[in-house]
Amino acid sequence: MADILPRPSAGVLPHIPDDLTIPQFQLDPQFIDQWRPKPLGDGPWLIDDASGRKVSVPQLRERTQALANALSTHYSIGEGDVVLLFSRNHVDYPVAMWATHRLGGIVSPANPDFNASELEYQLSATNAKLLIVHPEAVQAALTAAKARGLAQDRVLVFDVDHVKPPVPSLVNVNSLIQKGSRMRNVPERILKPGEGKTKLALLSFSSGTTGRPKAVAIPHYAVIANTLQLSSHSRLLDDSTKWEDRRFRPGDVSIGVLPLYHIYGLVVNLHFMLYAGISVVIVPKFNFEGMLKSIVRYKITHLFIVPPQAVLLCKHPAMASYTGKLNSVRVIMTGAAPLTDELNTMLFALFPDAHIGQGYGMTETCTVVTMWPIDMKRGVSGSAGELIPGARIRILKPDGSLGTYNEVGELLVQAPSNALAYHGNAQATKETFLDGGWVRTGDEVRMAPDGMLWIVDRLKEIMKVRGFQVAPSELEGSLLDHPDVSDACVVGVPDEFSGEVPLAFVVLSADAAARLKKASASASAALEDIRASIIKGKQASKPRWSKYRS
């Protein structure tokens, strides 16, 4: 069959500028006035959750330029240099990112819960020249930097009021911004026509369909494209819709609990929200009861969440204390993993007046491919939504032929937001990024005649645990590093809260088995000791939020 295209109701793909960097598109007045909805007054773009500090567009513009001045002058960051952000959400996270982009550099976001060996792997894979960290992550950062031969003075730290860096000599990002504000502005990187499609902005990590995490090469054009695709799909500039019925409105307030190192949080919860004129409350680390307090305090209108957070909204006992207090919420979007029909039904009952639905995307498609229709207040329960403008798909059946409606097969995606490749990994690139700009997702799907996409299964070995990718091979490698384990196999098992959790089958080494026979404790207690040592051991401390069963 022919490629499956978006329904006419999904909107028309607008012109996507291919000669702009992300900060030019987001911050520069001439482009703000040209493309984005008209703002309501001078409302802030970012709000710090803990302090209530508000950051306006002019302040973001000034801080970005000042930090760019300092990064260029003091650290010689320039064309093609990689700056790795190893931090929880912070109001200066986008400032550090956009400042790097102003200089022609590339940003690689990293999970702040990584241990030193995981961070060292990402530093090595990206050849990062500078590391910007949250104070809580300093020790892991310094250990990884030392292992990579990155000098300590190349590690910078965000300022956090209640957390002092364990190494006071590290340079503070805010102090750099103050210095940079007194410097002459360095020239920013100007792109030639068409260059935005190849000029890299991000190296975001994903396990893809198999194996260790890989650096996904994302150009400036991709982030801008997905922002404009979402804008068109959501009819941001359509004045014919009644104000109270619009899904995204300037002056609304979104909560930024999704981590900014994750592509969902970075593109949808940050860049798209700011483009739509919606303030983002920056939350460093998710805490459910803290999120409820923030919804009330800031009158949050938009929640971007993953299924475990939806479970908490539906089932956490603290919700009983917030009856009638969450009425400001008018949009809830879930992504990163499917939501069950039961949870959808419960969400609909909890927020009867809100727009609620799901979307689908991945790092390799940067980001959203489908979203629930704008003319439907409630998405079809269990569906990932319809294709957004500019996205087209193919259904690849097991026999290699292309499927039609209601036929099941692997989802292939072609979109202007697609990433380019896996950086430095030609073999993985060949397997996932196909000729003609198509991306193999590793997800088994079917497309209904009404245009709704349904995720059927995953063909890839990767598990989705709380919205994060987990490679069984990585966990198996960690287990096999333990001296008491001779063989291991990890599979995913369903879990209501996490979606999936890893289940490990472990074969003990001969020595461990012999010790077990001689142990005075029961076999189950001895095995529990081994399990605990694997979980707590350095080799197996990788996915700190994952759950082992043996």
TrEMBL record:
State a single Gene Ontology molecular function.
CoA-ligase activity
Answer whether the UniProt record assigns the keyword Ligase to this protein. yes
User: Where is the AMP-dependent synthetase/ligase domain positioned along the sequence?
Assistant: 44-422
Sequence ranges assigned to domain AMP-binding enzyme C-terminal in this UniProt record: 474-518
Q: Does the keyword Zinc apply?
A: no
Any Pfam family the entry gives = AMP-binding_C
Record Gene3D superfamilies: 3.30.300.30, N-terminal domain of ligase-like (3.40.50.12780)
Keywords attached to this entry: Ligase
Name it: Phenylacetyl-CoA ligase
Q: Which organism is it from?
A: Mycena chlorophos (Agaric fungus)
Taxonomy of the source species? Eukaryota, Fungi, Dikarya, Basidiomycota, Agaricomycotina
